[in-house]
Predict the 3D structure of the following.
Amino acid sequence: MVQTHETVTLSCDMKTSTSTRVYWLRQRQDPSPKSHPEFLPLAIWDPVKKAAFGEGVEQEKLNVSHDRTWSTLSLTRAETSDSGTYFCMIIGNPQLIFGKGTRLSVVDALPTTAQPTKKTTLKKKVCRIPKLPSQKGSSCSSLTLGLLVAGVLVLLVSLSVAIHLYFLRRRARLRFMKQFCR
C-alpha cells in the first residue's frame, strides 16, 4: 500500500530464464464478478528496442530497466487509478513464465496506526489465614486452603512411608549380616 504521488518499484526475478523479452501487465483492481480478468499491457523490455510502452500508457510515469537477472518497473507519481495487480511475463525460447503478481493499492492517505494499549497491572490477592472472631481483608478460598491441607497430608504420608522403608531395609540388612557372621 502506497500513498498517492509516491514512487513504486516492482521487480521481476529472471534467474531461471534466458529470456529476450519481458512484459509488464496490470490487472485492474477488483474486476466485477461478471467480467473476465483484463490485463493492460504497460511495458515491454526488448534487448534491441529497449523499453516500449503499451497503448494509452503515460510513458513519463513509467521506467523499465533490465539487467541479467532482474527486470524492474518504476511507477512515479502513483495515483489511485494505478491500483491493481502487476505481473511480469517472461517470454523465453521455448518457455513462457508468468509471475505470481504483486498487488498494489494506492490510497490518498495511509491508515493511521493504533495507539499502543496501556498495560494494566493486576493487584495481587494476598492470602490471609482467616481469623475466627472477625475477618478483615480478603481470605483464601476454601478450595485454596483445601489444596494446601491436602498437599501437607501427602507430604506427611510420603515421609512416613520413606521412614518405614528405611527401617525395613535396615532390619533386612541386619538379618543378612547375622546369617553370614555366625
